[in-house]
Amino acid sequence: MRRASARFALVDVALKIWRYDPESGERELREYEVDAPEWACLLDVLDLIKDKHDGSLAYRKSCRMMICGSCGMRMDGRAVLACKERMKPIADAGHVPVISAMGNLPVLKDLVVDMAPFWNKIRAVKPWLDPGYDEVAEKERIVSQQQVNVINKESLCIMCGCCVSECNSMESDPEFLGPAALAKGFRFVGDVRDHGEVARLNELNQDHGIWDCTRCYFCNERCPKGVDPRDAIAKLGAESIKLNIDHDMGAKHAKWFVKSAETTGWLRETELVPKTQGIVSSLKEIGFALNLAKRGKVPPPFPPHVAKDVKEARALHDLVRTQGREGAAGIVQGEHALAQIEHVLEADERGGEHGGD
Amino acid sequence: MRAAIEAHDAGADVALVSKIHPTRSHSGAAEGGINAALGNASEDSPEEHAFDTVKGSDYLGDQDAIEILCDEAPDDVYQLEHWGAVFSRTEEGRIAQRPFGAAGEPRTAYAADITGHVLVHVLYEQVLKRDLTVYEEFFVWKLVEHEGRCQGVIAWNLLDGGLITIGAKTVILATGGAGRLYTGTTNAYACTGDGMAQALELGIALKDMEMMQFHPTTLAPTGVLITEGCRGEGAYLLNSEGERFLKRYAPNAMELASRDVISRAEQVEIDEGRGVDGNVLLDMRHLGAEKILERLHGTRELSMVFAGVDPIHEPIPVRPGAHYHMGGVDTDTWGRTTLEGLYAAGECACVSVHGANRLGGNALMETITYGKRAGAHAAEWALTNTTVEVPESAATDAERELGELLDRREGERPWSIRNELAETMHENFGVFRREDQMRRQGEIVDELRDRYESVVVEDKGRVFNNDLTQALELGFLLDLASCMVVAGIERKESRGAHARPYDFPDRDDENYLRHTIVRWVEGAPKVEWKPVKMTKWQPMERKY
Amino acid sequence: MAATETRRVAYYKGCLASLSAKELDTSTQALAPLLGIELDELESVTCCGAGDIHEAEPDYYLHLNARILAYAEQTGADTLMTICNVCTLNLRQANWQLKNDDNLRARVSQNLETVGAPPYEGTVEVKHLLWLIAEGDGYEQLKQVAHKGLKGLKVAPFYGCQILRPSKILGFEDPDRPWSLEAIIEACGGEPIDYPAKIKCCGFPIIQAREETALGELIQPIEQASEAGADAIVTPCPLCHLSLDAWQSKLKKATGKDFQMPILHLSQLIGVAAGLEESELKFKRHVVSVEPLVEKLEA
Known about the structure:
Number of helices of chain C: 16
Number of strands of chain B: 19
Radius of gyration of chain C: 19 Å
Number of domains of chain C: 2
Distance between the termini of chain B: 35 Å
Strand content of chain C: 5-15%
CATH architecture of the largest domain in chain C: 3-Layer(aba) Sandwich
Structural class of chain B: alpha+beta
CATH topology of the domain at 218-320 in chain B: Flavocytochrome C3, Chain A, domain 1
Largest sheet of chain B: 5 strands, mixed
Strand order of the largest sheet of chain B: 17-15-10-18-19
Radius of gyration of chain B: 22 Å
Helix content of chain B: 25-40%
Oligomer: heterotrimer
Order of helices and strands of chain C: EHHEHHEHHEHHEHHEHEHHEHHH
Number of strands of chain C: 8
């Protein structure tokens, strides 16, 4: 059998790594340079550094094929899986990336974070099937592929933490459950075999839950597996509202947008505050509101600013509500098309037949 | 995890000790599926499943163990589904099953091409539900033997540093395989055969150690796995001439022949100059984008990231890679080893369900069924035996040994020993084996073991010192390599994954229808033999 | 100085530009002809739903956006121009879903027809004004239009979230290293200021329901831009503008810091460089006074 390593060209790769030694408390940015094979990923380069330059460099790794979720870390401030990032293009471009530990989690040493807060939040959503009082079937429960597809994306999650690393809401509120835990929550809410939907949604509709998501979409952007946690959170919101679990201000805020659209077309901004926050809280905001009102930022609700042909919007609302795509189904239905995007865009680049936006 | 759940449900107080977080387990990388005679895709029966497994094992599998696996498999799979495993479904809403290598019927239940991932997560969910104690990121280094029983483990606390001793009435090893013995391997960095080496250290028998499966479709050079599921969905294997060369080696089953047959075929094609840069080609283009995106999405991603190839448009270059270790700790059908209180299940065990070659989809099934059985038996034993005693000397001896290693300031870094081991095993103990190469490999391993005596750990810190644990893992690999080579030399025939086309090209049932047994005796591996249990099937010529 | 070549676009201004951020609409309408853009304003439209309808009633969100796209197609233009990040994401996402799923498109089109709206054909592309003028002919035109210039004014670009992420839907620029606003600031004669929070969230979606969390986000771009010496922040999103401008006073209450950082809409920034009048720019509608900036430029 031929030797594997001999044939590949070497590339000169330079990196800077934020080192942290918990025993001395020292934190330092150090530069390293190694000759790596042209197929090397960031993880391979770290291995070379650890082997040949500094055995104390600490990082997690296991499968090296993007499934175990161990090697999440930041490259130039953006969370990635170290085993997924090819280094040749970076080295060829003459760029020296800065490698650091993932964000929003305490750093234990070098690139190793304390995952305990992450796992605690996962545990908090009670991540196991709640089959209720159903008689256990003799064989498998009958579930259609379509029903499985509802939680297909959330099932892809490898718990790497990349989504959590850049979560803007969690940065501001460390108690926010976060994208990974909430996506896991939807994995059960959306599972037809789980009978704890109402209890789960009631839990998740509390502080630091669904409505704390700031919709920055960093999680969707960072996830190396295509889970799209932001969309899972939206599915939770949709299911909550479908089941009339709407006591949270965030839910009320969202519902007012629906009301506005079907009555006046445009958003009834002025009423947004009392409708979201309630009268008492709104009264507290009077000073703030008056300041805005001075500038015309609080448009008077009367006469209502009505869009043209708004009756079409009303009719549409009545119509779609009869078609059984309420709640999360409304988001799931678009996933098939969205999954094609990269493939379609690549086909465009190759000169394929897909026209595209 | 499956064993822990079973033991807990039987009433035992369980601790799960894992050197990596449980969901990082390499079972999560399994892709294609899990075998059980559910009968959802066609008429099927446990007996047919058993026969396919026996034949697949090249008749080295113990038939009683195989029958148990195939009988219990369907209910065990249903249990996983009841717990919430997200399987792909048939039109009727039942668990979908696909064709897989060397199977007479499509019985590989699957979840797209991430079956292992789905199962690891459903088990972890059940672990969380029961609030099981998990010693996460604790590296078990040694087993504790006292008064003829295994009474616990000694582990290095990876997060905070320091050795701890955990006493236990029973210990179940579920430490997986040792693919890291080879350069091109599908295995994670964590797969260093820890449990097998730890059992070996206590004088416990390891069985069929020479049997390492080479998976036919791995990516060069690292060995990243491309699932057999691709071939299950209809992919072809082509040589440089665009020929589906398996028609010359396995004309009936073609791409779905058993793995050892295909790996050998590929190796011959490559060696005879019909490879492409040391690979053959896995062609899926005819499956179409829709099917690939739906059923083989993970595969496509792996191919694009690691091989730079989009299988929708181009064939994937693949070659054999070390994948699964059929051998392991000798156990009975309850997972019991020869040491009271010590059990083993899964890849680190050898019951033997897989004999000389494993069918795709049977490994996941084994971890579940035999994990369950080991858990049940260990719990029962533990609940009927009251004492646990870990002698202080076990801890102090370990401290001393570790101290010697950590105190060493000069010596060889583990990587050079590790890389040489993996490269030479790849060269001398791969798909095809020859006596002279195997003997030379034995010498090489001995030299490496000598060099290992002066291995140096650079990181002297306590917090997250995986420089230390990786050095300890290398020790395990070296011990296991010795065993494998010695067993390989002694088996003077070709059977399953052990192929000796130059000196012993045929299967020799008269002399070698038996397992190799290796024990560590006076500082070296010693080979003995153990008969194969046969219930229903007599060995026949094995053709695909 | 009007453009020589005109391109006609369907113009969807969105909710805020219609009401509380009227200054965005007036400055855009005044600027467009100078840039060679003929705005065909859509009237039979509704709110795009923002993240709220997408979360509350996603099927309705899809239909509302399909309707907007359908009416845009009616104008015969090939581009639907937006002036808000959120509208851009919502419309582009809906467009993708409908274009790449025959069954979905069939059902939605049928529903539109049932209520008397025009059908959805998938013939328009959705583009933010930002993209039309950041490169190519649009950029050349911009340079000519910005004749008065910003005289080296230090301007901090604030992209916000939904013009960059998710990048597979938006796709105009690298979501972590965007350049369009900087290019435009330079074309207008200003000096772009760099700072880390320029691509982070302003907190608007949760500014009512989770004010404290939102303010913890909001302070970052304002504080960093201020410390970097910026004279103003420019943003392509009126929702971000509302946070940055109208809620800036709340930062004073929460942190004790009074930043007084003027926040400009994209078309206002260009408008200043192009010499638009106050009647078109409507700076008086801002909560944080833009006066210091105006004075600096007039000096």
